[in-house]
Every structure is written in structure tokens, then in C-alpha cells.
Amino acid sequence: xxxxxxxxxxxxxxxxxxxxxxxxxxxxxxxxxxxxxxxxxxxxxxxxxxxxxxxxxxxxxxxxxxxxxxxxxxxxxxxxxxxxxxxxxxxxxxxxxxxxxxxxxxxxxxxxxxxxxxxxxxxxxxxxxxxxxxxxxxxxxxxxxxxxxxxxxx
Length: 154
What we know:
154 residues, mainly alpha
């Protein structure tokens, strides 16, 4: 863990394992991020296998959690995302606890899910645009997040 803190503070590497204060990311933030990924994967009312796999891979790698922990996060996220108004709470928690680079990483994770099936549909673009606004990111920051994925740096 100390190596991650060192990377975060001294080497400028963006990670979601710690929040903007350098504290280990709480489970509620992990769930909030999982909710956004599931929202994207299920935006067309169909969970494509590639999109589900992408959700698991990025959550597992960005939070450095096990397969079992990732599954548990997604189970909690799936039940919570169905509650009205919860998405706003999750986005607010992400905005409060993650800095700009970390929020860009969250958007990049969403883009990873979007491109997983090698098709970018209009409703997926709209979701990403809406999320950009809700995550308080500029167009330039959102484009950088997208390019990170398209150039396979995440």
C-alpha cells in the first residue's frame, strides 16, 4: 500500500486505490464506481458479455481487489443502482472524494466498458457525455479520458 501512496503523491500516477487525501478508498466509493460501470453496461437493457468482463477487469485492477471482492461489489452495486436517486448520490460521493485525475479515470473506466464490444452506440456516447458533466470534467478532460482507453493505456 505504501508504494501506491508514494505513486499517488510523488510520481503523479493516478490510482483509485486511494482517495484524493491518499487514504484507502472506502467500499462505498468502490460501489459508486461499480454502479456507474453497470449503468453503462446495461444502458441498452442488454449486458453484453464483453462489457461485463470489462467492468470486472477495470474495477479489479483500479481498486486492486480480488475476484471475490469484485463480485461482491457488483452484487451490492446492482441492487443499489435500482433505487431512485441513488445515482446522484454516487456521483456526488465520487466528486467529493476523488480529484480531477481520478474522476477522469472513472470516466476512462466507463469508456473501457463502452468500447468492450467494439461498437460505440449513440446512447453510450450520450451516457458518457452526461457523466462527463456530472463528474464536473471539461470536454478536454473527457476527451483525454476517452483517448486513454482508445490508445489502450488503461
